[in-house]
Design goal:
The chain is built from 13 helices and 15 strands. By secondary structure, the protein is of the alpha+beta class. A 6-stranded mixed sheet has the order 5-6-7-2-13-12. Strands 8-15-14-11-9-10 form a 6-stranded mixed sheet. A 3-stranded antiparallel sheet has the order 1-4-3, with no helix packed on it. The N and C termini lie far apart (55 Å).
Length: 494
């Protein structure tokens, strides 16, 4: 079924068409979760010093690097019967000029104008008939700068692996590395008959794989006992989370397709100083900053924070060393309780630190890994149900994800990267997500919100700076935790 006809130019056999690659269960779940008001794309807003390069210069630069991420030339192929997961196939009509677009900000080209543009771009779904990414070169920023806005579907890249098109087009030296264009042959897509044969073959292999798995448990009783204990703990973990729902907050409820965006840049040195003082991690500190900001924001909305814990979904990288550098998703989703009830910044941090340590040792992580493994056998209908449950407002109020970045200057065609603001996504009925990215001494918080529900998203963004300042000046706070824990949260009508 591969196209191995002789090349018209040379008469030599044409290289075989690459075989379709099936999406993992996790990747497919992000496709199944997408709705008209829930776009499952992620991205970033990179601001560079100096004037923007010419459009053709950027096109040529990206063309030279595309061989490092061939998935960005691929599109989805749906199974004819809809009984297995989709495949990635080469797009024979791939047009780089379609994916790289140019825009300009209205005067004065400040942060507000840039944030408005980001909100509008992330309000639009990606075209499922093309490779699932777009890139916008934005001119007209104040002080003679320009921006690069990237947008890719979560099924394409997980945002944690650190490998996507935006990362491979950047260099650690002002002078771009000399990379020749790798030849890329356009092949026609696989015929429907081939996809149907692959779908049927996959359906037939699933019972065999399950039988082999069951047989291995019989032959190796210790493996069976370990798997049984893991499954039991997984069920207990999921059951306990469903029986202890996230509180009802203004963060949750019906959302529309339109978005607002805000970004704030904080000092990484300040975060590290707090981390060292409290024997915590950078992730502990940024989660505490988010907790303090949410406390101030909720109180500004008239929400009673006494006894209140906000439930955050925190993605955790589960890639092994051998999986580093691969596209696709290999993440576990953990649910952390943020103590917005705590008015002492220091005790707030210590509570977050201790809870995150407990969470890493808890059954949640084992349960997440078990679900990743078992979902490979699930048909799309079951996978869709599991995906909806995984992103239910019963389990969490908002997504908070932290990705460490390089701590040295990086460049695009000789222009130094000044800042990078990450953009996460909004699942159904979730009005806010917060993504954090550190780069060259700065830690940037990117807030994506529903346009109608988060009209005060800039107030929440400003509260992040306030929460960090409170932590930085809180050395004289009590040294022990308070004897009382959080009381039952009052139900808050969104």
């Amino acid at each position: 079924m591969a196209d191995d006809r002789p090349s018209e130019e040379t008469g030599t056999p044409r290289p075989a068409r690459p075989a379709p690659q099936q999406l993992s269960a996790t990747d497919a779940s992000f496709l199944l979760q997408e709705r008209e008001s829930a776009h499952m794309h992620i991205g970033g807003v990179a601001v560079f010093e100096g004037p923007a390069p010419d459009h053709d210069e950027v096109l040529a630069h990206i063309e030279r690097r595309l061989s490092m991420v061939p998935r960005f030339r691929q599109k989805l192929a749906q199974p004819p019967l809809g009984l297995t997961r989709p495949w990635w196939i080469d797009d024979p009509d791939f047009n780089l000029d379609y994916h790289l677009r140019r825009s300009s900000l209205p005067r004065p080209g400040g942060q507000r104008q840039l944030q408005t543009l980001v909100g509008r771009l992330f309000s639009q779904r990606l075209d499922r008939e093309r490779p699932l990414w777009e890139m916008y070169l934005v001119e007209g920023l104040e002080d003679g700068r320009f921006a690069l806005i990237t947008k890719a579907h979560h099924a394409l890249v997980d945002g944690i692996s650190g490998v996507d098109l935006a990362s491979v087009i950047l260099d650690v030296q002002p002078e771009p590395a000399d990379m020749p264009v790798q030849p890329w042959l356009r092949h026609p897509g696989p015929p429907r008959a081939e996809l149907l044969a692959r779908e049927v073959s996959g359906l037939l292999r699933t019972p065999l794989a399950l039988a082999q798995e069951a047989g291995s448990q019989v032959l190796y009783p210790s493996r069976f006992r370990h798997r049984w204990r893991t499954l039991t703990r997984t069920a207990e973990s999921l059951g306990s989370q469903l029986l202890d729902p996230a509180p009802a907050l203004p963060l949750n409820g019906p959302i529309g397709p339109h978005r607002r965006f805000a970004a704030r840049h904080l000092s990484l040195d300040e975060v590290k100083a707090i981390k060292n003082r409290e024997n915590a991690t950078i992730n502990d500190v940024v989660l505490t900053v988010v907790t303090g900001a949410l406390r101030h924001w909720l109180e500004s909305r008239g929400v009673e924070t006494e006894g209140l814990e906000v439930r955050a979904l925190v993605p955790v990288n589960r890639r092994t060393e051998t999986e580093r550098g691969l596209l696709g998703n290999r993440i576990a989703l953990l649910r952390a309780s943020l103590p917005v009830y705590e008015d002492s910044p220091t005790l707030r941090l210590r509570t977050v630190r201790d809870r995150m340590n407990e969470l890493k040792r808890s059954r949640q992580l084992a349960a997440a890994d078990t679900i990743i493994g078992l979902s490979s056998f699930a048909p799309p209908t079951i996978l869709a149900q599991a995906s909806r449950l995984n992103f239910s407002t019963r389990l969490f109020n908002l997504i908070v994800t932290n990705v460490p970045g390089p701590q040295l200057p990086i460049y695009l065609l000789g222009r130094e990267l000044e800042s990078m603001a990450p953009v996460a996504f909004l699942p159904t009925d979730h009005a806010l997500s917060i993504a954090i990215f550190s780069y060259n001494g700065t830690i940037t918080f990117g807030l994506l919100g529903d346009y109608e529900r988060m009209g005060d998203i800039d107030d929440l963004a400003d509260a992040l700076q306030q929460a960090l300042q409170e932590l930085a000046s809180a050395e004289e706070s009590p040294k022990v935790a308070r004897p009382h824990g959080p009381r039952a949260a009052k139900t808050v009508v969104p």
